[in-house]
Amino acid sequence: MVYEHGGDVYRNKVRLDFSVNTNPLGMSENVKKAIAENIEQFGIYPDAMCINLRNAIAEKEQVGIDNVLCSNGAAEMIFAVVRAVMPKKTLLLAPTFSEYERALKSVGSQICYYYLKEKNDFELQDDFIDYLDDIDMVFICNPNNPVGKIADKKTAQHIAEVCDERKIVCVFDECFMDLADGYSMKEKVPVIKAFTKTYAMAGLRLGYMIADTDFVCDVQRQLPMWNVSAAAQIGGITAINDNDYLEKGKQIIREEREFLMDKLKNLGFKVFNSDVNFILFKGNVGLDKSLLKREILIRNCGNFNGLDEGFYRITVKKHDENAEFIRELGDICG
Question: How far apart are CA 258 and CA 278, in angstroms?
Answer without folding.
Answer: 11
